[in-house]
Design goal:
Structural class: mainly alpha
Strand content: under 5%
Order of helices and strands: HHHH
Number of domains: 1
Shape: elongated
Number of strands: 0
Distance between the termini: 62 Å
Length: 112
């Protein structure tokens, strides 16, 4: 029974990794690609690691440390890359309506 649960978690994680790959191909600009890739791979990695922890209970603590590392570094690195892309003015998709970071920077620069 535990093997079935572990297999289901690994399969679900693989599905999220596949959706991240699709998001990287289908999204129109760097910002949405980064968001699709980061969210899906973070959850996919966590599910795969949980499935492996069920398969190999002795590895549980090591896998928990790896999951913690992924949960802490993946979103932070994605945020840093998005800020860098924004600061070198990589354009957003044409149908993007609001650039909140640009608006906040303009508001801070004007002294309002």
């Amino acid at each position: 029974m535990m093997d079935l649960i572990g297999s289901a978690l690994v399969l679900l994680g693989a599905i999220f990794h596949f959706s991240a790959g699709l998001g990287m191909l289908r999204m129109p600009d760097v910002y949405t690609r980064m968001q699709a890739g980061t969210k899906a791979t973070t959850l996919g990695n966590t599910l795969v690691l949980a499935g492996l922890a069920i398969y190999h209970p002795g590895w549980g603590f090591k896998l928990l440390i790896i999951a913690y590392f992924v949960l802490m570094t993946n979103p932070v690195s994605s945020h840093a890359l998005a800020r860098a892309a924004h600061s070198i003015r990589i354009p957003m998709a044409g149908n993007t309506g609001i650039d909140a970071l640009r608006d906040a920077q303009q508001k801070a620069g004007s002294g309002i």
